[in-house]
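sanity check this record:
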Amino acid sequence: MKAERMSIAAYKSTIRQSESPRQIERRILSRLTGTLEAHVGYDTATSFERVQILSNGLRAALAENQTFWNELKYDLAQPENGLSPDLRAGLLSIALWIDRQTSAVMGGQAGVRALADINRSIITGLSASRPDQPSAETDAARPLQTVPQEG
């Protein structure tokens, strides 16, 4: 078991060394979004079916997505965060909306699609290249792109 933990630690270290923070965020958010999208049947389900869908993985997917956005809120609040104040404010606003929407989904008041759509918008922004930095090698120096706010 110790060798397995060492292998996992080495793998994580390699990922951190080969991917920029932006690439890591995009990869994680893509995985989370795929998990949310696997549960969009929740949006048109009956109350009984919604309870089943929540207990069959949606609750965990919502919690993991919310954890990502909570971590992002923390990072955005740090003085050393290099994003522009306007972009930070916009992302914080989205993160707060994610909190409210997640609670609404858990309570049966809203659907999952809106959360997945917001995540997709952010993934698109993370995937966009700036004209002054077209190559992937400079990805670590790129700030997030402006993201349309919904909701």
Notes: The radius of gyration is 17 Å. The CA atoms of residues 20 and 140 lie 5 Å apart.
